[in-house]
Amino acid sequence: MHRLARNARFACRPRLGFTLVELLVVIAIIGVLVGLLLPAVQAAREAARRMSCSNNMKQCGLALHNYHSTFQRFPGIGFESNSAFSVQAQILPYAEQENLQDLIDFSSPIYTGSHGPISIHPNNEEAARTLVPMFRCPSDPQNDLFTEFDCDGAAGQAYRGCNFMACTGSGRDDAWDLRSKTDGLFYYGSEGRFRDILDGTSNTVVFAETLLGNGTVATTKPAQEHDAVAWVGHGTATNPDVESLTNGPVWGWYGYRGYAWISGKAYSTTFSTYTPPNPDYADVTQLAYGWFSSRSHHSGGVNVTLGDGSVRFVTESVDLELWRDSGSIADHRVTEGL
């Protein structure tokens, strides 16, 4: 009798734990939920990064306007490569970066040397390696510390990179060579004013983002061409098929795009609208000038700053001639559909 009662009590106790089948079902459900939620979380994060990028570009546009209000002109780029301070370096005080610009000695070169040993000038070394968050897109994971170009890396010298490029024009005809007047707002020795933007400030691109290079030099075409600039020699081609140039004789593949926000070199802080946003082929340089594209890791396009200070997202499918027209300040073509 006691044994029956004891067995009855055991039979009525609730079962503890899960069976293996139940555990596997729960794990499967969690996996499905994670699979559904992860893309949404990633999309939300990218949307936040894209918004941060847009805000940074907005600051650049406002700084450019404030510079013009002070000097009644836009900043130009110097005539000599080693003393060509970038547009970005010149607008620093107008974006609450006075302390950083105080570190720049505009009367000294950025670097010394050319074909022999090259080193950053001591008066500009601290500024050159200082990170400027306003010039960076958070969607670009590339390391922004460059030690291979125009500096003595062995001595610990380095530059900080820049994602936001000043527009030198359409890149058509002779506008690819910054040493003479281009059809854009910025080139070597430029002193453009608002009155020069005849196409309208809301139709003219002044800044756009690009991707940093990977900091390496190669003799063979890299798997990821968007990391590289193809050096095609000392030609003087105009209106080329840029993709075809990358498939022809190339001296080398250089990962130095955007390598120094302080430098006004063409591949460091400028771009043109000659090639479409986010092309799947490399940029091209000849004579250290050339065709440098707007690029980003944002899905489907790139952020640009217009002459009126507004920021717009331009898709990769934009009409190429319309895109080229947007880089020119006075070609009298309508670009409202950009």
UniProtKB/TrEMBL annotation:
The lineage of its organism: Bacteria, Pseudomonadati, Planctomycetota, Planctomycetia, Pirellulales. Residues 42-321 form the DUF1559 domain. Coiled coil: none annotated. This is DUF1559 domain-containing protein. InterPro entries: DUF1559, N_methyl_site, Pilin-like, Pre_pil_HX9DG_C. It comes from Novipirellula aureliae.
